[in-house]
Amino acid sequence: MRLLKPALAALAIALIGAPALAQVPRAADGKPDLTGIWTNASLTPLSRAPGQKSLVVTEAEAAKIAAGTGLAGISADDPDFNDSGYSDPNKGAPEKGGDDFGLKGYDKFWTQPGENLAFVKGEWRTSNIVEPANGQLPFKDPAAQMKRQIEGFRVYMTGEAPYEGPEEPTLSERCLIGFGQTGGPGMLSVLYNNNYQIVQTPEHMLILVEMAHDARIVPIFASADEARRNHRPAAIKPWLGDTVGWWEGDTFVMETRNINPLQAGEQSFPVSAKGVVTERLTRTGEKDIFYEFSVNDPDTYTQPWRAEMAFYPSTGWYEYACHEGNHGMIGILAGARERERQSVPAKPTR
Question: Which DSSP state fits 96?
């Protein structure tokens, strides 16, 4: 017994000096409780910015990057913005046909993307992507994807599109799904409305997305095998995909297949008909959910890739009212009809 006393003393000292283990709230069934209102707002992009080689930076470096981060394509030092970040109310609208005609409809009054880089696992991150190590999407055809992005941004900047019918505007403009990738699969922070309300029951996980009121109702099964057997037929391709869930220890796993192909063109990253997105949520404390997702899509990417983020408690969640009193669609279609009338030669009169 005497030989054990020094070891026990050393163990006691180590335990006293060790940080306390995080207390994870648990639901009535013993599972970690994800219920609450959360936000993933941050200035960290999905892909690492050009010239930024490191995934992890110091707090000082993170603050410098955040201060130099632009807004919706507008650089942080744009001369049209004053020190407060608001556009000059006396300047007037951009010139019709100019490169910035549709670009400066937002300023900081309308936006809330976050103030800092993402803080994940105690680290300041420069990209959500952690694999591959360069922080870039491993596209099989980078040129084609760049062309897609350029065309999408051109329409965003200029508003120039045929608008032949109500289906012509983007899905997000029609409020069918949220802007960017806010609703998932692969839930990313966007320009504003980065709040999520999670309601957990033993049978379902509801994730209500503030942006454009997307709702993900995920059935929970006893195992991965059972969940996968309950995917809907491939012919059914709902918005945000067909998602099933299960618990792996204290981690809630969601697997999504059969994402609507119309969704791919407007998201932060495309997923083909063969793509599978796997999301994992692990509550690591009172005020933290570690969130990661991986994409396995051999038609689009050269390898599977993975991203990491964190969700933190939010102060509130707001209803996203999109179409109520919105005359934009009427104006768009009326303009298209008038352009058609002007392009038709007048009939000769007798």
Answer: T
- Model pLDDT for residues 84-134, shown as the tens digit of each residue: 666 777 777 767 666 666 666 667 777 889 999 999 999 999 999 999 999
Residue whose token pair is 């454009």 = 212
289, 264 contact by CB (below 8 A): no
What's the distance, CA 127 to chain centroid? 13
* Count of alpha carbons within 13 angstroms of residue 74, beta-carbon side: 24
Which residue, 311, 252, 243, is CA-closest to 277? 243
In the structure encoding, which two tokens stand for residue 111, read together?
């936006």
Q: Which residue has the tokens 């220890």?
A: 249
Cis peptide before 185 (omega within 30 of 0): yes
Residue 295's closest CA among 330, 262, 270? 270
Quick one: tokens of 294? 């991986």
What per-residue confidence (pLDDT) applies to 20? 41
Range name among 50-64, 78-92, 207-221, 333-347 with the lowest pLDDT average: 78-92
Contacts for 155 with CB less than 8 Å, ≥ 6 apart: 161, 170
Question: Dihedrals φ, ψ of 184, to 5°?
Answer: 85, -170
What is the three-class DSSP state of 15? helix
Q: Are strands 36-39 and 195-200 parallel, antiparallel or unpaired?
A: antiparallel
**CA 31/CA 203 separation, integer angstroms:** 12
Kindly state the DSSP code that residue 202 receives in the 8-state scheme.
S
Per-residue pLDDT, averaged over 284-312, amounts to 97
